[in-house]
Write a structure and sequence with these properties.
Order of helices and strands: HHHHHHHEEHHHHHHEEEH
Radius of gyration: 22 Å
Helix content: 40-55%
CATH architecture of the largest domain: 2-Layer Sandwich
Strand order of the largest sheet: 2-1-5-4-3
Mean pLDDT: 85
Largest sheet: 5 strands, antiparallel
Shape: elongated
Number of domains: 2
CATH topology of the largest domain: Beta-Lactamase
Number of helices: 14
CATH class of the largest domain: Alpha Beta
Number of strands: 5
Amino acid sequence: MPVDRSALGAFLRSRRDRLTPAQAGIAPFPGPRRVPGLRKEELAVLAGLSPDHYSRLEQGRQSTVGDDVVEALARALRLDEVERAHLSDLAAPVRRRPEAWGVAQRPEAALLRMMSTLDHVPALVLGRHTRILACNDLLRSVLGAEVTTGSLLVRWLFLDPRARERIVNWADYAMPAVGALRYEVGRHPGDRHLAALVTELRTADDDVARWWEAHGVTDQTSVPKLIDHPVVGRLRFGIEMLTTPHDAEQRLVVYTVEPASATEQALPLLHSWGSVGAPHDAEQAGDGVSPASAPGRASR
């Protein structure tokens, strides 16, 4: 079966449109310009490709894309490390057995041990599709009891109005989350559950739809998070993510705090309240995409 190259072409167009000739370090080719970004011919010259070769790439008509072409395009388009990896994924998609995506994940034991030693700060273990494989009580005290083991964090982030109320800098955190979803789709193009989740979010939320069309990609969402807590007030966290060599598709996410800050002083109070939701022990969870129980939000 031929490989679908439409995503590769769309990504190349989006990166070409954002880069002007001046930014690329070349004089613009003569003639009227419909958009400020690079023309196909200009990018082809920058990458050392023939205009016809590049046109076939962007139109999805090039059956194979070599590593040398990927590197040349990445340099010409001035892609960062994550964008370069995403371009490589789109150029040579990995095919896996369809049933592999339906296997439920269990939290990595090493990550669980690390999380248990960090009960003085909010922490969680994230798996595929941002499924919460485990979390501590303090995380739910900070974000809200509706954030539970087995749920998808992106569903809460975009479909539960309480997420926008709780996270002060919601857009700063949510936009990279969409980029992380796109990066995951590039790495796993055959994951039907992931594709259905993206479709659900794009249909339900205008922000997701707009950011998805921008083709931005991120590998992590380590964006500082500001929380407006209804009891202890404003909380400020850094976000750090850790993985182990045993399972690259799981991450321990830790909410860090500045020493002697107001946030550090408030956390023991929240911790003393104990559990505010479902038990934090890991629960068996599939990778289906049935709607979450939290109330949804109509498209704006």
